[in-house]
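Sample entry (91 residues):
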Amino acid sequence: MFNQLYENLVLHNEGVTNQTDKETLLEQLAALEHEQWMKWAKELMRKEKLSEERIARWEKDCFKPYEELTEEMKEFDREWARKVLKIVKGG
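Predicted structure, serialized as tokens:
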């Protein structure tokens, strides 16, 4: 996934002009952010004592592929993806 994102962002950034391309790229970055977050969260659970409530909520709502998240949960990842796009665009 990273190679495809890198190619889209760096090698072909000038080609990402239409709305469909931008939305696809945003979703790819959001999915990558979610994957990164899951790894971080699972490592945090392994190393630190978290509340049973938090663990249960994460396991029920968050520890699943990006495509299976609710729109509300996806929006958290999209927020970070938009930050990446802003940096790549030089803003």
